Amino acid sequence: MKSIETTLAGPNATDYYESAQYIYQANGDLNKALIWVNTAIDMSHKANETPFWYYRLKALIQAKLGDYRGAVDAANKSLTGAEKANNAEYIKSNTDSIKEWSKKI
After folding, report:
1. Rounded to whole angstroms, how far apart are CA atoms 39 and 103?
2. pTM for this one?
3. Contact 40, 16 (CB under 8 A)
4. How far, in Å, CA of 66 to CA of 85, rounded?
5. How far apart, in whole angstroms, are the C-alpha atoms of residue 70 and residue 89?
6. Contact 105/68 with Cβ under 8 angstroms?
7. In angstroms, how far is the first alpha carbon of the chain from the final one?
8. What are 29-76's pLDDT values in tens digits?
């Protein structure tokens, strides 16, 4: 019953994130992917626990759409979370992206 109730309650933040990630990786509709990752961020923010990798995906989508200012903002949020989690891979990828995208603003 718990599984049924969860399914019928509708998608959660992870579902929106994973859908946005799929679209991004498949070179699909990036505007839809951005809406979905923003929905994931909004839903997780209300629970006060937005994962830094949500912001990383948002930054990547925005950069692909040419919104480098937005991408840098999202990457900075991801970087802050990655530093708190001591995640070297995300720290490096965000730092490198911020440097690259800042040149395009």
Report:
1. 29
2. 0.92
3. yes
4. 29
5. 21
6. yes
7. 51
8. 999 999 999 999 999 987 678 999 999 999 999 999 999 999 999 999
